[in-house]
Amino acid sequence: MQAALVQARAALAGGDVPIGAVVLDADGTTVGVGHNVREAEGDPTGHAEVVALRAAAAALGEWRLAGCTLVVTLEPCTMCSGAAVLSRVDRVVFGAYDDKAGAVGSLWDVVRDRRLNHRPEVVAGVLAEESTALLEEFFARQRR
Fold first, then answer.
1. What is the pLDDT of residue 121?
2. Residues assigned a catalytic role
3. Which of 70, 79, 91, 97 is deepest in the core (most CB within 10 A)?
4. Mind spelling out the 3-state secondary structure of the chain?
5. How many Å apart are CA 105 and CA 120, to the nearest integer?
6. 8 A C-beta contact, residue 49 and residue 76
7. What pLDDT does residue 144 have?
């Protein structure tokens, strides 16, 4: 999660919401990193998780990320939860809960929907305080 927080801070340079993600392979080696790039690249799909999953798939030469773990500072939204399911990651680890758009238990629970063909393990609340503080700081500055 520390590596994901580093990525989250990198999002600030592009004026993006500070959310970061990393993908680890079965051995715990980082195979993909990402942070929000929606503002920097004008890309509505430029969420940290999607960026990290794409990087991992490119690094591994395979879209199926079985054995991998997606680590992200904020609970994934519906798009990113769907991407986690479709990429076949074994687990999703996240920091802060997202009561407004979270799709890993808060508002929806896409990753554990029994109607889908893959359901990754979920580990929630890892370094949640640090992730939450980064987001609260960002939005406080935006409101000023």
1. 98
2. 49
3. 70
4. CHHHHHHHHHHHHHCCCCCEEEEECCCCCEEEEEECCHHHHCCCCCCHHHHHHHHHHHHHCCCCCCCCEEEEEECCCHHHHHHHHHHCCCEEEEEECCCCCCCECCCCEHHHCCCCCCCCEEEECCCHHHHHHHHHHHHHHHHC
5. 13
6. yes
7. 86
- Amino acid letter at 77? C
- Residue-wise pLDDT tens digits, 9-25: 999 999 999 999 999 99
What tens digit of pLDDT does each residue of 30-71 get?
999 999 999 999 999 999 999 999 999 999 999 999 999 999
| The total number of residues written for the chain in this structure | 144
Q: Structure tokens of 83? A: 């991407």
Tokens 């939450």 locate to 132
